[in-house]
Amino acid sequence: MKYLLRRLGFYILALWASITINFFLPRLLPGDPAGTILGGAGGATLDPEQVKALKEALGLSDAPLPEQYLTYLTHVLRFDFGTSFSFFPAPVSTVIGTGLIWTLLLGTTSVILSFIFGNLIGIFGSWRRGGVVDTFVPPLLIFIGAFPPFFLALVAFYFLGTQLNWFPSGHAYSDNLIPGYSLEFVGSIIAHLALPALVLILVSMGSWALGMRNVMVGVLAEDYITMAEAKGLSQRRIMFMYAARNAMLPGITSFGIALGFVLSGQILIEQIFSYPGLGFLLIRAVSSLDYPLMQGLFLMITLAVLIANFIVDIFYTRLDPRVRAE
User: Which of 18, 101, 216, 277 could pair with 270 in a Cys bridge, judged by C-beta atoms 3.0 to 4.6 Å apart?
Assistant: First the structure.
């Protein structure tokens, strides 16, 4: 319990630091963000009223900095990040909410499936060292994972999406469908999800397989594995309950980090497939100088990483008795 309380205190401190940095980012930019947006096209004389209105939308004012900071904190606690410029007049929280659904669907699906299949390959490969799975599959996956994700995405999009037409070439579902709980709509979501998820799975599955394989080889040499075999336990039980369970501990931490970076780890993939997630929104926000949306997205990404790591800490206490004893 003390371990979890210490970790929780660290995450609260990290969250406060990220919120503070997020507050100062637009204020550290060279020049005036409002003037940059309003005067970027022609350099004409700016209307003071327009500049004042835009500063209020950005959360910038002439008030003392501590007062601005307290105002910003109250807005953040209410998840009020202002109004998006590129989706005006929609609030930033509404824009993030629409993209968050698709990013979580794509990210969690790809991370969970790559974690499961990659670890299974590592488990069976280490259990039968020198076999077909151990000899050919991990090296092939590592070779595929060595390519940049955006390169594989472009290749998959061109050949499988546009040339062969095996998968839809963009968006989250067909434009002619009305969102609902119909089988046709769900099928369209799965079809549009399949290709970008496949790219993300292939890119990351090799590292999971190799990591599990290397750790489990060391675990299989431990005395308690020999003791379990001497007690006459089944091979399946020894493989999963004794060897794989202990070999998975380092991977659990990496899994939590991967889940935390779901919101930011697929920006280029979403852009290539025109998948309307947070990465797609972030690129649009940067290109259109949408400061409120950028701030909201950066804070959401940070919050997701911290929450995911705390959840991993909770699971870690259940899996490792040494941590639970603290």
Answer: 277
118 and 206 in contact (C-beta within 8 Å)? yes
Q: How far apart are CA 31 and CA 55, in angstroms?
A: 13
pLDDT tens digits, one per residue of 100-137: 889 999 999 999 999 999 999 999 988 888 888 888 88
Domain chopping of the chain, boundaries: 2-77, 96-320
CA separation for the pair 56, 314 (Å, rounded): 41
Residue pair 81/93 in contact by the 8 Å Cβ criterion: yes
CB 105 within 8 A of CB 266: no
Contact 256, 319 (CB under 8 A): no
Global pTM reads 0.76
96-320 CATH fold: MetI-like fold (1.10.3720)
Q: What is the CA radius of gyration of the chain?
A: 24
Instruction: Provide the 3-class DSSP secondary structure of residue 62.
Output: coil
CB atoms within 10 A of CB 65: 10
| 99's tokens | 């993209």
Give the angle subtended at the CA of 142 by the CAs of 164 and 315, to the nearest 5°.
Answer: 105
For 184, residues 6+ apart whose C-beta sits below 8 A from its C-beta are 177
pLDDT in tens, 285-301: 877 777 788 888 888 88
